[in-house]
Amino acid sequence: MRLKFIPPLTPILVEQPREGDDWIHEVKFDGYRSQLTIDEDGIRICGCKGHDWTSKYRDPVKEAANLGAENAIVDGEIIVLNEAGLSDFGEPRMAITSGLAGGKSHEPH
Question: Known InterPro entries for this protein (predicted)?
Fold first, then answer.
């Protein structure tokens, strides 16, 4: 069965995270919000609006093939860390536009 794209929830930037078990928090990284899907049609990576970017992300697609999952949807941010260990929004964009989005390690989280 082909799994459908699920639009991601949009995080809200706040000064102080709320406390309690009813809240989920995520760190804001500078990258591209993406959804990786594994199903009978193969592996796809779509941007946050559902556009297919699979051909732009060769390495993450190869790594996803090693997960051994028959069906999965993984929501995350595709990032590139700079030498200081910080996410750098310009790096994934440069890798995509230059066709090199396969030369660095990208991890969903």
Answer: DNA_ligase_ATP-dep_cent (IPR012310)
CB 70 within 8 A of CB 42: no
pLDDT in tens, the chain (109 residues): 899 999 988 777 888 888 999 988 877 788 889 999 999 999 999 999 999 999 988 888 999 999 999 999 999 888 888 888 888 777 766 666 555 554 444 444 4
Residue 57 lies in a domain: yes
4 has catalytic annotation: no
Four-point Cα dihedral 61, 65, 71, 72, nearest 10: -50
The pTM for the full model equals 0.74
CATH number at residue 74: 3.30.470.30
For the record, the structure tokens of 15 come out as 């000064």
Cα(19)–Cα(41) distance, integer angstroms: 41
Nearest alpha-carbon partner for 40 in 7, 75, 76, 72: 72
